[in-house]
Amino acid sequence: MTTTLNARQEAFAAAYVRSMNATQAAIEAGYSANGASSKGWDLLRNVKVQARIEELQTEIMARNDVEADRLIRHLYLIATADASDLVQLHIDPCPRCWPDLDARDPARAEPDPECMTCRGRGQPRVAYTPVDQMSPSAKALFRGVRHNPKTGSMEVLMHDRLKAADMLMRHLGLYRDQDEAPRADPLRDLIADICRRGSTAPLAKD
Ligand SMILES: [Zn+2]
């Protein structure tokens, strides 16, 4: 229920919530620079303009809340992500492990402990999760790929999980003194619980 403002008053209100400077806002709204200062103060005292400014500020705060929620969720996904959702290390038998077995034989899945070549250590193989198969937390953790054309090596880059956890803890006030009574906050309790257990909990889908 916006009370009607004229175009200049509306422009003043919009400019004022951006700069919080009445003189500047009056000039931006098209009032003459001469006397913009007193015009700005007059407009600020106008109840209709005041109501509109409050309305615009409420809208901005609501938007900021949404942004903050999004950021918290993103940090939470990074902090609780499992690196093995992005890159997996497998140990395959070496070519000498099972000379008598067919490559498709399930018994060939593990290295031969008696193998004289690898001594049962097998050979490592790295597997990458395709981006379209990543979980939301793996996607949040994923920062990109660094490819070295000279060596042909590929490095999966990840965001810093500890830094994300630290930002989250700070934002949620988890570093406050113990004797200060904390506000009830289910998300904070969940994160504190995960940090205590040192494990990653499966995330509910959106
Ligand atoms: Zn072997």
Fold and architecture overview:
This protein has 206 residues and is of the alpha+beta class. Helices cover 45% and strands 12% of the residues. Helix 1 crosses helix 4. Bound molecules: zinc ion. Zinc ion (ZN) is lined by residues 93-94, 96-97, 111-112, 115, 117-118. Keywords: Viral genome packaging, Viral release from host cell. Pfam families: Terminase_2 (PF03592).
Task: Offer a quick outline of the entry.
Keywords: Viral genome packaging, Viral release from host cell. With 206 residues, this protein is α+β, with helices and mostly antiparallel strands.
Between the first and last Cα atoms, what is the distance in angstroms? 33 Å
The proportion of residues forming helix, as a percent range, comes to 40-55%
Q: Please compute the radius of gyration using only Cα atoms.
A: 30 Å
Helix count, DSSP H or I runs of 4 or more residues: 7
Q: How would the global form be characterised?
A: elongated
The hetero molecules present are: zinc ion
Low-confidence stretches: 199-206
Largest beta sheet, briefly?
Answer: 2 strands, antiparallel
Strand content: 5-15%
Order of helices and strands: HHHHEEHEEHH
- Mean pLDDT over the full residue set: 85
Domain tally: 3
Structural class: alpha+beta
Number of strands: 4
Give the strand line-up of the largest sheet.
1-2
Keywords: Viral genome packaging, Viral release from host cell
InterPro entries: SPP1-like_terminase, Terminase_Gp1_N_sf, Terminase_ssu
Protein name: Terminase small subunit
Organism: Rhodobaculum claviforme
